[in-house]
Automatic annotation (TrEMBL), chains A, B:
EC number: 4.2.3.4
Gene: aroB
Domain 3-dehydroquinate synthase N-terminal: 61-173
GO cellular component: cytoplasm
GO annotation terms (biological process): aromatic amino acid family biosynthetic process; chorismate biosynthetic process
Entry keyword Metal-binding: yes
Key words, A-Z: Cobalt, Lyase, Metal-binding, NAD, Nucleotide-binding, Zinc
Function: Catalyzes the conversion of 3-deoxy-D-arabino-heptulosonate 7-phosphate (DAHP) to dehydroquinate (DHQ).
Taxonomic lineage from the root: Bacteria, Pseudomonadati, Bacteroidota, Sphingobacteriia, Sphingobacteriales
Root EC class: lyase
Required cofactor(s): Zn(2+); Co(2+); NAD(+)
Cited InterPro entries: Dehydroquinate_synthase, DHQ_synth_AroB, DHQ_synth_fam, DHQS/DOIS_N, DHQS_C
Name of the protein this chain belongs to: 3-dehydroquinate synthase
Annotated 3-dehydroquinate synthase C-terminal domain residues: 175-315
Any one GO molecular-function label of the UniProt entry: 3-dehydroquinate synthase activity
Length: 354, 354
């Protein structure tokens, strides 16, 4: 697993915590801050701080864990702590956590004093395979996901597979959805490899391959003007389902669980509109339903889901713009879907027995 | 007065509201929003909307006027309105107002859905000469000025001198401080021209010359890594005085009034540390005191001012980094000043009789 070169920065896979130390030693930062959440503070932070002790002084900032806290209010709290700690434009923020910490920390750093350096140490499978490249930062507002954010690249990303050992099974499944998506939109051979693997334990080699695929797509289209939209497969419906679950379920869906539902629905739409073969859809459904339990959708939720999709940031004007796949391994962007079509696809999901 | 080319966008001076209409007609925007404050809604917005009616539909968003409202809370309000109005990444925001509207509107647009287009229609002298080029957006937090923001360029700026007719005298003086600063840091001939002009009414030719100077400096150093720091002359102390006044005075100082105080103090520091001649300082003081009334500083405020300066975003670590001038028309960046020196300069200002 080589170091991956992304948009002006490196993603380290081998002995990456040593690389983090090297990075800091070369960096001449005025101050170093570490952001974590109440979970990663326990299970991941010690491995980082034990390397940094004696190398650099640092201040710790902790947020509450969970998507519900990826908000502007938490940003305000972190900005205020940075003010109190005397952060300046020559400081460094190290984000140690899953996508919530890296997204929020990236946004905070990209806007504090008009931007200072940050690096990511992703500790979930999802953040390692997906949030580690792409330069998207963001937080939610009024439970609209990532509605406020910037495109800002970290100065480096350090992927340490060891962190995944403490990750709960549902979080592993969450990251897996993005890996499966990478196969579906771009690489049939990778999809086949995943399909035939034990998907219950994260595999560093497969993580690396996923990052290679995502990175290739991102380098092609850094600001999401065209090609990069392929990464949105499963996400138009998935995001709406995720928000819906966050608003309605005590034990809400993870991002990947919602995306898996989105990929089944948008897979069905792909058959209707983009040339995906029925047997390919069946293969996709068989792999996804092997990993992800059924989520109950009843008639009352379709209206809510549709209005959530309309607020989704990938839309242009009044149309709902989806990314579909034309076959396993190839995607079809800018597929305009009507409310009815989206609703039908949700009903298709609801009709499946598994 | 030609159109000025700034960082990837134009600043229009001639018949600029017609240029705004042209810009929108060429833009193919999905939606158009106009942000103004409760003052500019009355005195400036009608001139804009009467041009746009029949050209494009638009939605109006209004914030309360005044620096005290340049906050994250108002950003949240504007973001929520954009969500409700269905703004997307292909929308356009037109900021019609002074620096408060253009700074806040720029920040809102640069972070909503990770950024959509905005243009500025600056309606104060200050925002025409200063905020119209440079790409700085930002809002205040805990009364620390511009602590949250981005570097994002507008897509165009439209300077319409007619707006200045309704501008109160104190606001004219506020903008004038930046014009005088442009002369002091970069152009002795321009300083002489200003010195010999009637400074009580804004002069479009002089506005244009100021923007030319600022633009030259900004193009040299878009991200404020070095040269551009010269624009901070008067601002280390000026920002602290401005914040202090905002916190303590019912009828607080304008930005320019505070910067004028800062320029006298930092002029004095320039004599002590950067080679400015005593007679140049006297000339600067004579021009500034002709325009700006004395502000009362007593012994109790020096500690507060010093702690405000330490929080200023131009500092690197523990030092207070000032921009001074080595002569009229030439600046000296990265002058490290101690607390004592800054305090002495404030006492020098307090000792002046005018
Ligand atoms: N920026 C991007 O490109 C991008 C890409 C995908 C997802 N995201 C965002 O990422 C977020 C989801 O990321 P996530 O799934 O990592 O969520 P998360 O950060 O909430 O992590 C999930 C849970 O696992 C805990 N955790 C983290 N690391 C752990 C470890 N090593 N062991 C045990 N527990 C651990 C966390 O504390 C949290 O409770 C969403 O907000 C999504 O929008 C961003
Ligand atoms: N982005 C930059 O590069 C930059 C540069 C300089 C200053 N600024 C910022 O700009 C702000 C100050 O700008 P400002 O002085 O324009 O303040 P402002 O926007 O508060 O305007 C001053 C007052 O004048 C009113 N007003 C505006 N136009 C008017 C008109 N044509 N007629 C009558 N009244 C009018 C406003 O409603 C307000 O009450 C500060 O927050 C400062 O930080 C930014
Ligand atoms: Zn995703
Ligand atoms: Zn200024």
């Amino acid at each position: 697993m080589d170091t991956i070169q992304s948009l002006g920065y490196n993603v380290y896979f081998n002995d990456s915590l040593t690389e983090l130390v090297n990075f800091i030693q070369q960096g001449k930062y005025s101050k170093v801050f570490i952001l974590s959440d109440d979970q990663t503070s326990n299970c991941c932070l010690p491995a980082v701080t034990e390397r940094l002790d004696g190398v650099t002084p640092y201040d710790l900032i902790e947020i509450s864990s969970g998507e519900a806290n990826k908000t502007i209010d938490f940003c305000i709290g972190v900005w205020k702590m940075l003010i109190d700690f005397g952060a300046d434009r020559h400081s460094l923020l190290i984000n140690v956590g899953g996508g919530v910490v890296t997204d929020l920390g990236g946004f905070v750093a990209s806007t504090f004093k008009r931007g200072f350096d940050f690096v990511n140490v992703p500790t979930t499978l999802l953040s390692q395979v997906d949030a580690s490249v792409g330069g998207k930062t963001g937080v939610d507002l009024d439970s609209i996901k990532n509605i406020i954010g910037t495109f800002t690249q970290p100065k480096a990303v350090f992927v340490h597979p060891g962190f995944l050992e403490t990750l709960p099974e549902r979080q592993v499944r969450s990251g897996l959805a993005e890996m499966l998506k990478h196969g579906l939109i771009d690489d049939e051979a990778y999809w086949d490899e995943l399909k035939n693997s034990d998907l219950s334990v994260p595999n560093p080699e497969l993580v690396f391959k996923s990052v290679v695929i995502k990175n290739k797509i991102v380098l092609d289209d850094p600001l999401e003007k065209g090609r990069r939209k392929c990464l949105n497969f499963g996400h138009t419906i998935g995001h709406a389902v995720e928000t819906f679950s966050l608003d309605n379920d005590g034990d809400h869906l993870t991002h990947g669980e919602a995306i898996a539902i989105g990929m089944i629905c948008e897979g069905w739409l792909s058959v209707q509109k983009a040339g995906l073969k029925q047997e390919e859809l069946e293969e996709i459904i068989s792999v996804l339903t092997r990993v992800y339990p059924k989520y109950h959708l009843d008639d009352s939720c379709y209206t809510v889901l549709n209005s959530l999709m309309k607020k989704d940031k990938k839309n242009e004007g009044d149309n709902i713009n989806c990314t579909l796949i034309s076959k396993i391994g190839a995607c079809a962007i800018n597929q305009i879907c009507t409310e009815d079509e989206l609703c039908e696809s949700l009903k298709f999901y609801a009709s499946l027995n598994f």
